[in-house]
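User: Sequence in, structure out. Go.
Assistant: Echoing your sequence, followed by the structure tokens.
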Amino acid sequence: MKVLETELPGVLILEPRIFKDERGAFCETYNERAMEQAGLPTHWVQDNFSVSKQNVVRGIHYQIQNTQGKLVRVTHGVVWDVAVDLRRSSPTFGKHVGVELSGENGRLFWIPEGFGHGFVALSDTAGFAYKVTEYYSPADERTLLWNDPAIAIPWPVSKTDAVVSGKDQQGRTLDQAELFA
């Protein structure tokens, strides 16, 4: 597995080896030894899966307590995935990094604790699978406004075409949000 660093220290893109032939393709989506060598957690408490229609924006989510690290991937379709540094003490506070994930490229994206996470589906449908290091805690969940101008994420969907849940439309701006120290 190839490990690529991003502009945000600790946020990683993982590229597994994909073996293709006339029958289709095969790749490892998780290998404890490879994760350990990359410095990622090897203990996961929950696996999640969602399916989104084109232009659906999910996020930007994080848990202020019971913080979660997330290892995300796309099973089918294409998404543009983003991580936002929400640690006030970080030199990259308020910065973001985005990556295209697809069933075809097989990439995984590691978003450590202290970061917000969101994505937009770019294909007709997209299957999104992820592992988390801590259980989901509704009382601790927070939402950062997906299109906050202070963060200026260049989402590959227009504001008018984006399909955003009521909860995500009520997300807070960076200057209003409860953040990490």
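User: And one key feature?
Assistant: Residues 32-37 form the longest helix (6 residues).
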